[in-house]
Amino acid sequence: MTVVVATFYKFVSVEDCLGLQRSLQACCDDLSLQGTILLASEGINATVSGTEAAITQLLDELRSDVRFADLTAKFSTAKEHPFGRMKVKIKREIVTLGQPDANPTAQVGTYVAPAEWNRVISDPDVVLVDARNDYEVNIGTFKGAVNPHTESFRELPDYLTTHLDPQKHPKVAMFCTGGIRCEKATSYLLKQGFQEVYHLQGGILKYLEEVPEPESLWEGECFVFDERVAVRHGLQPGSHELCYACGNPVSEGDRAHPHYQPGISCPHCYADMTPEKQAKQAMRQQQRHLQ
């Protein structure tokens, strides 16, 4: 079986989150879709999987609402559903930055199409910042990008305010997986007085989809938040797997390490694994095999 995986988001005022949650949950259940849709007063953020016809029907349903009429989605395929069930949830933010002044509906950085991205980030005056978390950056990033070494998106503003200065760094370019985090991060930077702020339109996924590998400045794989774990150029499945113990992506090299035990530990978490934790993980691993 091959399923279509669609990711989409939009920053727009949503005042009826509860009613929209109910209608979308019913629609997705009827279409046998799986995945997660987040709703907040600031918009919608989703990754769902299903048949091509079902995905099309969901997007048509959303676009019939004037607020989502211009909604765009990114597509890939998987051999099976990357998600276990369908959840439509209401949150305070569709991507959590914790900075109320960061409002992409009011102001946002300059969008750069994938075809133009190489030119922008090759400018020596541009500071290129990876807006993702440390474990994501570690398996792949753009050549020359700065890693803020954050554990969550909420930590990024602290890094930006302590390491960047509008006077010393007049040009800043940012990127993330699908573009949503950069919408907020560039809005935040503009509020801090930065003048030239750019971000990759459609995120890394759109770049990997559209830019031919021989011309690419991307190095490694891109972490994705589903059971595919990582993708490569052309959005082909990557080589990484997920450590069930700590949630870190593990490479082929990690899986050859003596500290790697499938479902129990990996080189990233082995040092923190007490005998009790290892026994608990071993039991969970056994239960997974019985399912």
UniProtKB/TrEMBL annotation:
It comes from the Bacteria. Residues 122-216 form the Rhodanese domain. The keyword Cell membrane does not apply. GO terms for biological process: tRNA modification. The keyword tRNA processing applies. Keywords: Oxidoreductase, Transferase, tRNA processing. Pfam families: Rhodanese, UPF0176_N. GO terms for molecular function: oxidoreductase activity, acting on paired donors, with incorporation or reduction of molecular oxygen; transferase activity. It catalyses: uridine(34) in tRNA + AH2 + O2 = 5-hydroxyuridine(34) in tRNA + A + H2O. Its EC number is 1.14.-.-. Catalyzes oxygen-dependent 5-hydroxyuridine (ho5U) modification at position 34 in tRNAs. Belongs to the TrhO family. HAMAP family: TrhO (MF_00469). NCBIfam families: PRK00142.1-4 (NF001136). This is tRNA uridine(34) hydroxylase.
